[in-house]
Design goal:
alpha/beta, globular, single chain, five-stranded parallel beta sheet, 21 helices, about 40% helix
């Protein structure tokens, strides 16, 4: 090739590259401009609507109530309600169609109001649409944290969002992005990990999965909670005092919230806890200065349950809270109290307008003014096999193998006889934990779910016996799979040491007896632990041939069996440090990877696989 031709080819290549770059840049600018234009239009609509609103209508937008017992249709038609929450108590109906119909009815009442502002419908869908029996229930977040699979977390959140819309909701109070410091806390399972860095990655995935393109009919508004320090209180007390320095709060607790805000999260819920003696519901420096101004969060700050009446009334609003869970009889007191505060000047009108702007902004972003009703075709997708397959994958990847002596696992499918022990093995309520069907969970099998025992029977080719109470005579069994653990609990009922609950770091005497009975029979014993946190089971691990932390797997218990029988490998890793003894919790905090004062039995990130034992053979 001549020098002239080479030179011309180089020029063409440079021109082509330049043109391509221009195209890419112009596309990027176009997309950016489109989004900016959309946001500018939304802001114009918000301001136009805000200018038309009376003080009563503004306070109405700041009001969230339950869908039963607390209001009349006139309250909604008068614009006195901005959001509806479904919680423990009467359900909106028996079928998904009836749930949607109830919320459509309420939405129509809101659209009949003077300004026709649609409602937000919120629910604690924290591991699937867990308030609806028949929905796909995923492992709780502690299990998802063990998967270390952010793509899976995003997919689980997207499925949850779709099934929420199938039951009429457009707002979830999830994800919980707390950093638990002490496993005494009854909400450890709601969080992903003691690691801030892991939590950051899961936060971004969860927000993206839930919200996607927020105006789509299969997505919902997400809520990061509980801002901030709820999992880091002294001695793990729910609603207790967090005494960390502001430097440690900024280093360990705030980064996931910054990530959530950068990901466009629509709402943030404040916690029940105090921070250095100041209620987080009334903590203006952290809510207004840090979150709203510092992080530039432009969404909704919402109270937790009865937050207005419990934590300072109008001080809560002045601190920067935008929407109030005015439940359990709080509606009248909240609305009258806030109106009086505005009229006497103790609550600035600018604070009310800021709150309402944020609420209206999210309603426009959700597309509720154009499409206020849920897609009725989505009801048929609730609990779909495709969704359950993804939940089953999550179960498999969440399981952590802590011990496997003499390659006890995997269990051969052609084993002549296997005995399965314990009530947790055949009870989908027990295997799913709190926030499943009911607030405190259920202790029964629920619709659409598969128990661990059912999964074992599907995998085994030989005889499978079931010994519910650990008193059966099965000396001829080759393997005993003993399923033990915690009963369901939620919030303060789960605090270890709280007199309102019965939780403990150790297994019950009944469950210890199951293990002892089968150890005496000289049968290979596999212990599967169902729990919402690491427990003190040092002796039980020593007594077993194999020990598995299965967390709270949710509706797809057959995922546990698939790994026990070797159809899939163990890939889960501990999202928390694992304690040696109850004495590990004598201080303010438990064993954590950053705490050199307490040495764990297993460090965060520990988890065996079948390959570990194959390597030992070579």
């Amino acid at each position: 090739m001549s020098g002239f031709m080479k030179e011309n080819k180089q020029i063409v290549n440079k021109l082509s590259t330049g043109l391509l770059l221009l195209v890419v840049l112009s596309l990027g600018i176009s997309i950016s401009c489109t989004k900016e234009s959309e946001e500018a239009i939304i802001e114009q609509k918000v301001e136009a609507l805000l200018a038309k609103m009376t003080l009563d209508e503004k306070i109405g937008q700041m009001t969230q109530i339950r869908h039963f017992d607390e209001f009349s249709p006139e309250d909604i038609k008068s614009g006195s309600v901005g959001s509806i929450i479904h919680t423990d108590g009467p359900t909106p109906g028996n079928t998904a169609e009836e749930w949607q119909a109830r919320f459509i009815e309420l939405q129509k009442q809101a659209l009949d109001s003077r300004l026709g502002i649609p409602l937000l419908f919120g629910v604690d869908a924290i591991h699937g649409q867990n308030t609806f029996e028949g929905a796909t229930i995923f492992p709780h977040n502690i299990g998802l944290g063990a998967t270390q699979n952010t793509e899976l977390v995003e997919e689980a959140a997207a499925i949850t969002a779709l099934e929420m819309q199938g039951t009429g909701f457009n707002w979830t109070f999830s994800p919980c992005i707390s950093i638990p410091y002490n496993e005494k806390w009854g909400r450890v399972y709601e969080a992903f990990s003691e690691s801030t860095e892991l939590t950051r990655e899961f936060t971004k995935a969860s927000v993206k999965g839930h919200q996607g393109n927020l105006s789509d009919k299969t997505t919902v508004m997400a809520t990061a909670k509980h801002y901030v320090g709820d999992g880091s209180t002294e001695y793990g007390k729910e609603g207790g005092n967090t005494t960390l320095s502001i430097q440690e709060v900024s280093k360990r607790l705030l980064p996931p919230y910054r990530d959530a805000v950068n990901a466009g999260i629509g709402a943030i819920m404040v916690g029940f806890n105090d921070l250095s003696g100041i209620s987080m519901h009334a903590h203006k420096p952290l809510i207004t200065d840090t979150l709203k101004k510092g992080m530039k969060f432009d969404g909704i700050v919402v109270t937790d349950w009865k937050g207005y009446s419990r934590f300072g009334k109008n001080d809560v609003i002045n601190a920067g809270v935008d929407m109030v869970m005015a439940v359990d009889g709080d509606m009248d007191g909240f609305q009258k109290g806030l109106k009086a505060g505005v009229e006497n000047g103790s609550v600035p009108m600018t604070r009310i307008d800021d709150a309402v702007r944020r609420i209206l902004r999210q309603k426009f972003r959700l597309g509720l003014f154009d499409h206020p009703f849920p897609d009725t075709t989505l009801t048929e997708k609730i609990g779909a096999e495709k969704h359950r397959a993804k939940a089953r994958q999550a179960v498999r990847e969440s399981m952590v193998l802590l011990k496997n002596n003499d390659k006890t696992l995997p269990i051969p499918a052609d084993a002549e006889k296997i005995v399965v022990v314990g009530e947790h093995a055949d009870n989908t309520g027990l295997q799913s934990g709190g926030w499943t069907i009911r607030w405190q969970g259920v202790s029964r099998n629920y619709e659409g779910a598969t128990s661990i025992l059912t999964g074992i029977k599907e995998m085994a080719e030989g005889k499978v016996a079931y010994d519910t109470t650990g008193t059966g005579v099965h000396a001829d069994a080759d393997w005993a799979i003993i399923v033990v653990g915690e009963k369901p609990y939620a919030e303060f009922f789960g605090d270890i040491g709280d007199e309102r609950g019965t939780c403990s770091f150790t297994l019950t005497e009944k469950h210890k007896a199951y293990i002892e009975a089968y150890n005496k029979k000289d049968i290979k014993t596999v212990i599967v632990l169902i729990s919402g946190r690491p427990l003190v089971v040092t002796e039980e691990i020593a007594e077993s041939d194999a020990f598995v932390a299965a967390w709270l797997p949710g509706s797809e218990g057959d995922g546990v069996a698939q790994v026990l029988f070797g159809a899939y490998n163990f890939t889960g890793k501990l999202p928390h440090s694992w304690p040696v003894s109850v004495e590990d919790f004598n201080g303010k905090y438990g064993p954590n990877f950053w705490n050199e004062k307490v040495n764990p039995l297993y460090e965060i990130g520990f988890g065996l696989s079948y390959q570990d034992f194959q390597k030992n053979d070579n």
